[in-house]
Structures are given as structure tokens and as C-alpha cells.
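Teaching note: in complex prediction, the entire set of molecules is handled at once rather than each chain in isolation. The prompt given to students was simply: 'Predict the structure of this complex.' The entities are:
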Amino acid sequence: MHEMSLCESILQVLEQQAEVQRYRKVKTVWLEIGALAGVEIEALRFSFDMVVLGSLAEHARLEIIEIPGQAWCLPCGCNVDVQQLYDVCPHCGSHQLQVNKGDHMRIKELEVE
Ligand SMILES: [Zn+2]
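The expected output is the structure of the full assembly:
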């Protein structure tokens, strides 16, 4: 399950930031997850609770902000909404789409003490 390794990298970031920003406890993590990032949100929540056990983020609340997918369609010359990676353009059916939004995951904000 790759959500588990995603959570491990999130925890690494939290621990690195703890040294820089000098906090001891993470209370809330706001996570942006793109619809095209290939992340299973339920699996991510489940993994997060396990990965943070005994860490500075134990009992931290995970707030997930879902970012819709968007791609540039070459034939249409405009941005279109896409639900999945490798979707076709909803207007012209073309595969010539360049995803430009919603294909990543990142930590948006932290509440710490
Ligand atoms: Zn199109």
C-alpha cells in the first residue's frame, strides 16, 4: 500500500520542520490531495494514524483538502476538468491532455505547539 510510504514521508517532513520551527507537537495537518494524485484518501487516513503512533504527530488531526483535476487540451486550446489520469477531453475526446492541476499531494498548513 503506497499510502503507507506517503505517510512516512509526511512524518519525515513534520520531524524536519520540528527542528527548524522548534515545535514539539503537531496538532493538525492540512493536506492537499489532487484528484489525479492516485491517493486513496481512506487508506491514507488509516495509514496516517498508524505511522504517527508514538511520534510528535500522535493524535494529530488530518484535514484533507481535495483539489480537482485539470488539464490543458491541445486541440481545444483550453483547460478542461478531468476526474482521472488518462481521461480523455470531455469536449473533443482527445488524449492530448497535459495535466496542470490536481496531480500532486502537499502539506498546506500545520497547527503546532
Ligand atoms: Zn479537447
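Point out the following to students. The helical segments are 2-21, 41-51. The mean pLDDT is 96.
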